[in-house]
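Box 3.1 A note on notation
Throughout this textbook, protein chains are presented in two layers. The first layer is the amino acid sequence; the second is a token string describing backbone geometry. Keep the layers aligned when reading.
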Amino acid sequence: MRAPYGLSIIDNCLSCPVHEEHLFCNLPVHALQKLNDIKSTAIYPKSTMLFIEGQQPRGVFVLCAGKAKLFTSSSEGKTIITKISDPGEVLGLNATISNRPYEVTAEMMEPGQANFIARDALLQFLREYGEVAVRVAEQLSRNYYAAHEEIRTLGLTGSPSEKFAKLLLSWSPGAGNATEPTHLKLTLTHEEIAEMIGTTRETVSRLFSDFKKKQLLQLKGSTLIIRNKPALERFTRLMTAESGGISPLRIWSGLGFAPVALWQMWQVDFTMCSPTRKDDSLTAT
């Protein structure tokens, strides 16, 4: 069924074309039929708030199409984006299960479809289908570890350069030839990227410029090209070492660089925590 914004409505979980390993995907037929009975389907335009931080939990939203950003804000108006959610993910699960207020706001980043499941119906569904309840427990555990890693990145990472590099690596898939360029569709603004790593839009713009000069990334329109993932990983290790008080020479020597050659090739600006090569580029070895 066609819908506004050129979307195709997925109104039957039994015939859903998405067969990835998400929380409510690949369930037994009888469980999918029950899921069909308790969900309500809707199409949401860009910028729609599915739920708001501090609101009492009404239920969960199963994202079927489009992307949503989850973010939290301070009383001063500072915002941190905690996650960009893709199709197949269940939004509002932690709050709905615990019956505590939504800990984040969920906003559609583009037109999309989400299936809403009311809290009482979801809890009864979990009581009836133990396999689904186990999956929910596993997802809550993954949410906990993801939140822990987010806290480590924001609180313990030493510089915006390191946070930015780690974010780029998180976008790069693990499969395939690591030395081949990775092409990604960049849908985030510099302001949104800044909100993901806890910095300013101006800093993100400067980081893009710096990383392009180091030949770590390239931008072609809305396409982000990570030119060399191993080089980006080495750059991140160097940043981590510097912020942790470990000698960059020790790290780079451990990666196979001769000490003398290292200092001939590299000039390190410790005040900016940003290594620069004489030809202002970083390439794989």
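The mean pLDDT is 81. The longest helix spans residues 130-156.
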